[in-house]
Amino acid sequence: MATAALALGPSAPAHTDTGNGRGQSSPSPVEGTCEPGFARVRKAFEENFRRRGEVGASVCVYHDGKKVVDLWGGVADPAAKRAWYRDTTVGMMSVGKSMAALCVFMLAHQGKLDLDKPVAAYWPEFAQAGKAEITVRTLLQSKAGLLYADAAPDGSGYDWKTMIHAFEVQEPVWRPGTKGGYHSMSMGFLLGELIRRVDGRHLDRFFDDEVAGPLGVDYRYGLRRADFQRTAKIIPNPDNGSLGQIMTPGTKMYRAWRVRPYAKDPNNDPGYLMARFPSSNGQGNARSVARVYAVLANWGELDGVKLVSRDMVEQARTVSWEGTCQMTDRYTRYGCGFLLPEKTLMPWPGKHAFGHPGLGGSVGIADPESGLAFSYSPNYLAGGAGLGERCTALIQALWDTRSH
After folding, report:
1. CB contact at 8 A, 38 and 357
2. pLDDT higher than 80, residue 378
3. Beta strands in 241-320 (DSSP E)
């Protein structure tokens, strides 16, 4: 067994509390547009660089289907002294799981898939090892108990066929439907293969054709080499709680993530960036993710592009379980394919919002009642277990704006 599935990579910047990621005391220039009524968000974004150790990031907000905040700034690659530009993309980690869930809902909306039918109705081999009765909905709700791919060799995570076979023979950790646990490594594979079995296209191609193209968003699973020059470098944070668990043999997260090939700088490794590894290597920016979430905040349709029905939006944000997560041991509220607001992983004041965080602070959130869609995409990962103080400050500023 490899000594670790992941390495922390380059050291975090020394200016964690102050500075702008370039060794300067003045704030990084913030570029982009911000409607006057949302000036608090811009101020909070600027303060992230001055006071909270931001290196490079973007933030975007839609309100009632209109883009009202689109800001970016800082440094995309400190070593190369490359600035963060309008078209800079960055790894947004587990935000990609929600994009995969959206694609499953789209297939249901199109009548090609029934959320209450067994997964095995579309993927027969899935029925092995006590999984015959697991429905698509149970899978989306993270109640299937498929946290691991124990039959997959260490480091085999970029081999789709090997991983899918491992999930086919995997026995659930608990009786499906009785508990909830974050499918940290597995969800992208499970939903991705379901999509392939139903539609014939892999998740990356389906998303390109059915979501990114029609909406004109710059988000994709797996990079092309031509995209490397505009991709921000992920800067790990040794205080990140999930990274610590992933790195520690004997933990549940280590057991799940040991399949990812070892690399000295894993989140910037070309093999990882180009792989079909949809649980974590979706690449985009706040502008693109906010636009996708704006569809959900607008009940499934935006600018003439309809992805899902209002009923599908309601199903996505209906509570399926809340309490101690069987993977992370943290309090979690879960809908169907999306997480629901709570103070750490989703510190959003709106009670009926839904979305998905990514390791280190990236997030997409839709709140139909307020008409808001929000996304944030940094390259310096947050410490702790949730979105971190930089993202939380932006959310609070946005909510304060709404309240005045």
Report:
1. no
2. yes
3. 282-284, 301-302, 305-306
